[in-house]
Known about the structure:
By secondary structure, the chain is of the alpha+beta class. The protein is 26% helix and 24% strand.
Amino acid sequence: MTVGERLRVAIVFPADADKQASTKIEQSRFAGVAKALGDAGIEVVGAPYLDRVVADVRAQLMAVDGVLVWVNPIQGGCDRSLLNAMLAEVAATGVFVSAHPDVIAKMGTKDVLYRTRSMGWGCDTRHYPTFAALRRELPDSLATGEARVLKQARGHSGEGVWKVELADQAGPPSGFIVSPHSAVRVRHAKRGSVETTMSLAAFLAQCEPYFARGDAMIDQVYQHRLADGMVRCYLVRDRVAGFGEQLINALYPAEPGAALSSAPLPGPRLYYPPTRADFQRLKDRLEREWLDQLCRMVGLEKAQLPMLWDADFLYGEKDADGADTYILCEINVSSVYPFPDHALGPLVAETLAEILRLR
């Protein structure tokens, strides 16, 4: 970098399909990120993205030192295939890109729940690589009598996440066989959904489109302490930079004896600094134990972890000492926003350090 030359970072974010040309980073929800980068002496380039302008955005990104990306796995009905291919091409020229598409593929899909099921954050988790496998194996999973949560491999905001259980609350008798005709209660995690009863065959038909892109579905045992809330750890690379807490979240149950339709809608997520006292045990296990195990299992170095990502945890059963345990619910990599203001400083510092390291 020559004297007086400023580092340039592009922020890629979804464009308004009708107003793409006039979309400006200063008018987007990422204005705070742009200001923090600017305050650190970095020139910020807004790169509003749509598939139809992929070539134009590529040209923008080839002229910067680093790229930060905020685009959901499914955005406006489109997946990230074109975007990811372009980002990989840009990264191959030496431009820093976070999160890199290869990293997203390794840790940013629901498959990571199955791959890391033996870790301390794991639980009874099953993997259905094809629709045929789902149709063949889900009946045995339900025959245990426990509620299950099925998740499509890629998605956000509860899309493709279902709680499913046998409609007979008493559970199946010994030797009971679950068939396509068995009645199940299902609830979609998408906001506004209510619990309904249908045949297992009808539910399976609803899941078939999730396999259209060659993706899998994950099946986790339902966590009965879900009503105690969910904790989100926001990380900059391998350090927790803040927390989110959501006390009423997707699939929150109705009160005992109340109508199933009375289950409350998800509430707001509240944000806290990384020093919140009652989350320090979770923070320590994540930073000192689980991240090393995660990296080994998915084949990443810590230096390859996304610049900004988060991990959602539900409460598991308390341990023998009465302390909380935690079950990994999801890892988010593609578009982590909003996030605590406390993460801005570490995000900017790590972005600057990475760009300088690559020069």
